[in-house]
Amino acid sequence: MRAFVTGATGWIGSAVVDELISTGHQVVGLARSDRAEQALVAKGADVLRGDLDDLASLRRGATRADAVIHMANKHDWGNPAESDRSERAAVQALGDALAGTDRPFVVAAPLSGLVEGRSATEDDVSPAIGPDSNRGGSENLALDYVAQGVRTVITRFAPSVHGRGDWGFVDFLTTAARKQGVSGYIGDGSAAWSAVHRDDAARLIRLGMEQAPAGTRLHVVAEEAVTTKAIAEAIGRSLGLPVDSVAPQQAMAHFGVVGGFFASTMTASSNATRRLLSWEPAGPSLLADIDAGAYTA
């Protein structure tokens, strides 16, 4: 397939590009800078210049592709409303371009906010509906295109997509530990996150593009629940720092923006995903990655 990938030079998207090319697919990556373009060309990908606000480029990329993999998001923590707006507009532009083609439309989504008090499953419907909801309700918007002849596949990502070079939540926690001189967890540390290695995530995205039926929700999850205390302890070991509890009211001051997430349990199973696509994660666990120095290099 010729796949159009947004977020093609991001943490997850760059691994998806590698996975697609290594398995014989062609890639067109969206690039908003000369540096991003050079990185994609070096991998053997074609390039379409543009960004999430360039809706004409998004439509053009989708129209010329056999599949679309939408990984990009602004992740503007200071202005979440802008991130939500741009995400919804991008999904709508891509979906409109794919309408009536039966082509795959793989859309990244978070696991957070799906359910409370238990691990989410693939059957759980996102409560985010409409432009004023989380991520602009883009998951449900993308699924609406199934009725318009689009093979939409939702890929819900664990909060930690880990590996050497990660600049996500665990990297934020490691940076906070260095700054504070202590690796912290919030309260009793019983909150838990799901996790997946980046290479396993990329392989699942490729399988979803190739095989998943229209309307499928996939959970990009290798480990269902890793406690935040265990994460803090692994970071402490890797940095040679003490480990201690941080009061909830001090979380933002201690951890920065990630403090708003670290107290939350964000877990999900991937049993249905594994059965559907015969996907078995093979990468190291989150704690093994931390212990091996993935976040201290």
Topology:
Layout (H helix, E strand, L loop, with lengths): L1 E5 L4 H12 L3 E6 L2 H10 L2 E4 L5 H9 L3 E4 L9 H19 L5 E7 L27 H7 L6 E7 L2 E3 L6 H12 L2 E4 L5 E6 H14 L4 E5 L2 E5 H12 L3 E4 L4 H5 L3 H4 L8 H7 L8 H6 L6
Description:
This protein has twelve helices and twelve strands. The chain has 297 residues and is α/β, with parallel strands linked by helices. The chain has two domains: 2-159 and 196-221, 3-Layer(aba) Sandwich (Rossmann fold), CATH 3.40.50; 163-194 and 224-291, Alpha-Beta Complex (UDP-galactose 4-epimerase, domain 1). The strands form three sheets. It has a seven-stranded parallel β-sheet with strand order 3-2-1-4-5-6-10, sandwiched between helices. Helix 6 packs across helix 8 (228-239). The protein starts with a strand and ends in a 6-residue tail after the last helix. 48% of the residues are buried.
Overview features:
12 strands; 39% helix; 297 residues; 2 domains; 12 helices; alpha/beta
* Residue share in helix: 25-40%
Number of strands: 12
Low-confidence stretches: none
Beta content: 15-25%
Average predicted confidence as pLDDT: 96
Q: What is the H/E string?
A: EHEHEHEHEHEEHEEHEEHEHHHH
Number of domains: 2
CATH architecture descriptor name of the largest domain: 3-Layer(aba) Sandwich
How would you describe the shape? globular
Q: Largest beta sheet, briefly?
A: 7 strands, parallel
- Say what the CATH topology of the largest domain is: Rossmann fold
- Alpha carbon gap, first and last residue: 36 Å
Query: Which structural category fits the helices and strands?
Result: alpha/beta
Round the Cα radius of gyration to an integer and report it: 19 Å
InterPro entries: Epimerase_deHydtase, NAD(P)-bd_dom_sf, NAD(P)-dependent_oxidoreduct
Domain NAD-dependent epimerase/dehydratase: 4-79
Pfam families: Epimerase (PF01370)
Protein name: SDR family oxidoreductase
